[in-house]
Specification:
Elements (H helix, E strand, L loop, with lengths): L2 E5 L6 H10 L3 E6 L11 E4 L9 H5 L4 E4 L12 H22 L2 E5 L25 H15 L4 E6 L1 E3 L6 H10 L12 E2 L1 E3 H13 L6 E5 L5 E2 H11 L11 H10 L3 H7 L8 H5 L8 H17 L1
Parallel strand pairs: 1-2, 1-4, 2-3, 4-5, 5-6, 6-10, 7-9
Antiparallel strand pairs: 8-11
Helix pairs in contact: 1-6, 3-4, 5-7, 7-11, 8-9
Length: about 300
């Protein structure tokens, strides 16, 4: 039976992917920095060193015909040096791709929409747009993509947008926390839309890449088909909590001014700008996302509420 190596297998996406592949009867090798007993017995768990140091990819790839590469610094954040992004996201990926080519292993590389754009974009993004990353994280992801292509290894590159699901951290966890408040929220006048991606929908895209030869050598934007406004996101999350939307109109200029005056301009850049990614190419390849965005956000809110109560 062919084998699949999953790097970053203990993370938010990796853990769900490994369990899903194992449930589908695939032979899986799960690589993680601190091996733990978190998967079915059919899954082979192996240790991988911190990718700030050289990794012996040959040992990890032995007997595997495909690697799904998730491991890396997964977000843009303060306090992370550009050299760290380059070492972990680009150099380690380049070494993996070179080794995979030598061993005849296919690479499915999970990149990011930030390899293509900053945190907002004036028009819908497609794979045909020239990449214009705006920070060290995005630049490192784009450089990693280039390294995969340069290695001349069979590859598929996926560029997901912001991913949601039970257990998510970061901005979406903060949004759920905000939606839990009993107060009306002043986002009703914001008309900018943002694309999100259900974790289950990304996993469905990975399954498609594993099974569809025509996706080899291609790069795909991955996003739920329907982008939402911030008010619609709040409404969906509160619906999952059994509550009314509670979103009221408020002049965007005043909201922007208030956030800037309180030192939270970075928050305005996230909520005041739009980022719509068009997954048309992936849909044409046969992707059928199983989760609708509003329903997925509601389900995430219910699950996170249950975990908090437990």
């Amino acid at each position: 039976m062919s084998g699949i190596l999953v790097t970053g297998s203990s993370g938010f996406i990796g853990r769900a992917l490994v369990n899903d592949l194992a449930a589908a009867g695939r032979r899986v090798r799960a690589a993680m920095r601190q091996p733990a007993d978190i998967f079915p017995r059919s899954v082979e768990v192996v240790a991988v060193s911190d990718m700030t140091r050289p990794v012996d990819w040959r040992i990890l790839l032995q007997g595997m015909d495909t690697v799904v590469h998730l491991a890396g610094i997964a977000h843009a954040g303060p306090g992370i040096a550009e050299e760290a992004y380059d070492r972990v996201n680009r150099a380690a990926t380049a070494a993996l791709a070179e080794t995979a080519r030598a061993m005849g292993t296919r690479v499915i590389f999970i990149s990011s929409i930030r390899a293509q754009s900053g945190p907002s974009a004036p028009s819908p993004l497609t794979e045909a747009d020239a990449p214009q990353p705006t920070d060290a994280y995005g630049r490192s992801k784009l450089a990693a993509e280039d390294a995969v292509r340069a290695a001349q290894v069979p590859f598929t590159i996926l560029r997901p947008v912001l991913i949601y699901g039970s257990g998510v951290k970061g901005n979406l966890a903060s949004l759920v926390q905000l939606a839990r408040s009993r107060w009306p929220l002043p986002f009703g006048s914001l008309r900018n839309r943002r694309s999100l991606l259900a974790r289950e929908n990304l996993i469905a895209a990975i399954h498609l890449a594993l099974n569809e030869p025509a996706m080899s050598g291609q790069t795909y934007v991955v996003a739920d088909p329907t982008p939402l406004t911030l008010a619609e996101m709040i409404a969906a999350i509160r619906a999952g909590l059994g509550r009314r939307p509670g979103v009221v109109p408020f002049p965007p200029t005043l909201l922007a001014f208030g956030l800037r005056m309180t030192g939270r301009e970075h928050v305005w850049r996230r909520v005041g700008g739009g980022l719509v990614a068009d997954p048309g190419k992936l849909l044409a390849a046969g992707w059928r996302p199983p989760v609708e965005t509003r329903q997925g956000l509601a389900a995430m809110a219910r699950a996170m509420q249950s975990q908090k109560a437990a």
